[in-house]
Amino acid sequence: MENKQPSIYDFDINLICDYYAGLHRQGPGSPEVTAQALSFIPPLSSSATIVDLGCGTGGQTMVLAEHTQGKIIGFDLFPPFIEAFNRQAAALGLSDRVEGRIGSMDSPPFEPGSLDLIWCEGAIYNVGFEHGLRLWQPLLKPGGYVAVTEASWLTQERPAEVQAYWDANYPGIDTIPNQLLMLERAGYDLEAAFVLPETCWTEQFYKPQESWQETYLKRHADNPAVEAFIANERQESVLYDRYKAYYGYVFYIARKRTAHETAF
Length: 264
Description:
Layout: H1 13-21, H2 31-38, E1 49-53, H3 59-67, E2 71-76, H4 79-91, E3 98-102, E4 115-120, H5 129-136, E5 140-153, H6 160-169, E6 174-175, H7 176-185, E7 188-195, H8 199-219, H9 224-243, E8 247-256
Parallel strand pairs: 1-2, 1-4, 2-3, 4-5, 5-6
Antiparallel strand pairs: 5-8, 7-8
């Protein structure tokens, strides 16, 4: 049989969660990129409600708190992430308006038309790009905003090795033009879109993992599952270095289309 590279789905979810709980970021991004995306959204009032879906440990959420007013609620399915999120909010003196809650991004417990801004960095893939946008659109106030990052093909064609990797790990990845069409079909008007710089992957996401991987391997010495998982994570970094011209994350910032507006 062919010796196939495992996908992320081949590993226990508790192992994945435990590993990423030890990191400041659970996906590519940076404080600068979060602030840049936010700059395309008009200033929100102190009465605004912002929800960060799939917030992880809250690296990007705390940046949002620095640049906005109002209440911010972070949602994630994994308790260790939310525990770290709330510790971070407390340490920064933000607990009065920044709160992490355990919950699923595919059933956010908010009333229709109650949210000013929905944020989601590196997590919408869990429910699918277009499905997530459609699911969340009714929760926004008329003229409310959504800002998400999504894995995107940057070229129409790509080498077989990287195609096979994404087919195994996230077959929902698509090109930017197709994702823009999905966003429009879901009831939004685009405000801005930009590709995250390479440093969001290399310096902000992969580099911090290097020392953590050594620590994690020592903590779980002689555990074949952990060794295989770390090998898989390292291979992901190698593939990005090799094929970064073909894929990346794109930040999409869009406004909910109101009832009297029509898409062009």
